[in-house]
Design a protein that fits this description.
CATH class: Mainly Beta
Shape: globular
Number of strands: 10
Strand content: 35-45%
Number of helices: 2
Helix content: 10-25%
Order of helices and strands: EEHEEEEHEEEE
Distance between the termini: 35 Å
């Protein structure tokens, strides 16, 4: 049985947001180091105004989802997305990259039409 699922009010109306196994492992490790319970808490993925292309991604840990969040569960990691952000990032993949120049979470977003030169902001 798959451990990947989606729940919440918007569960059937939006394309899945996926999380790679390595991204889930990294996030769960960070959740644990913060003393948060992964069965209730989760990673909030959101979009905010900012950056040279107009929009940027944000992430933080939340103790629990908001009532109107769509909740994704991949590899035991709960991901919370608010309705306003969902329209910009539906169908995206959250990954974790480790390399010589950078290490961290990366969103592969099929809705992006352009990104700034540094890759920190985008436009849909």
């Amino acid at each position: 049985m798959s451990t990947d699922s989606m729940e919440g009010a918007n569960a059937k109306t939006h394309p899945e947001i996926e999380v790679t196994e390595i991204a889930a492992e990294q996030a769960l490790s960070l959740l644990d180091s913060e003393g948060l319970d992964a069965t209730e808490a989760g990673l909030r993925l959101f979009v905010q105004q900012g950056g040279c292309a107009g929009l940027s991604y944000g992430m933080r840990f939340d103790d629990s989802p908001d009532d109107d969040d769509t909740i994704y569960n991949h590899h035991d990691l709960r991901v919370f997305v608010d309705p306003a952000s969902l329209k910009y990032i539906e169908g995206s993949i959250l990954d974790y990259e480790s390399g010589l120049q950078a290490e961290g979470f990366h969103v592969e977003n099929p809705n992006v039409v352009s990104e700034c030169g540094c890759g920190e902001s985008f436009r849909t």
